[in-house]
Design goal:
single chain, about 100 residues, mainly alpha, Arc Repressor Mutant, subunit A, two-stranded parallel sheet, two-stranded antiparallel sheet, 5 helices, 4 strands, about 40% helix
Length: about 100
């Protein structure tokens, strides 16, 4: 899993400020489209906090991670809003506008 986790950190590090990707999007970038859940595990144990912007990864429908490792979905929401990410509701990112197209 070590190489996969590193590929997750590398992929997430590319997401620009103000944009997001889903766990599935990140898995596809890593060449493992069926490993979205493992992307979540990799981000949960991110050894590079502050360098790998885990807060920019959300669920496919734009929902925030309820157990966001750095303080819950409220912290994730605040971090994304500060970057200019648009929300449809308090807990869903507008993926049609904010999904990063590499």
């Amino acid at each position: 899993m070590g190489n996969f986790y590193q590929s997750v950190y590398d992929a997430v590090s590319k997401i620009p400020c103000g944009k997001v990707l889903s766990y599935g999007d990140v898995a596809k970038m890593c060449g493992a489209p069926r490993m979205a859940r493992q992307v979540g595990w990799a981000l949960h144990v991110n050894p590079f906090p502050g360098k790998v912007p885990c807060h920019r990864v959300v669920f496919a429908d734009g929902s925030l991670a309820k157990g966001f490792a750095f303080g819950g979905s409220g912290v994730q929401r605040a971090m994304l809003k500060e970057e200019g990410v648009r929300f449809l509701t308090d807990d869903k990112v507008d993926m049609s506008v904010c999904r990063w197209e590499e």
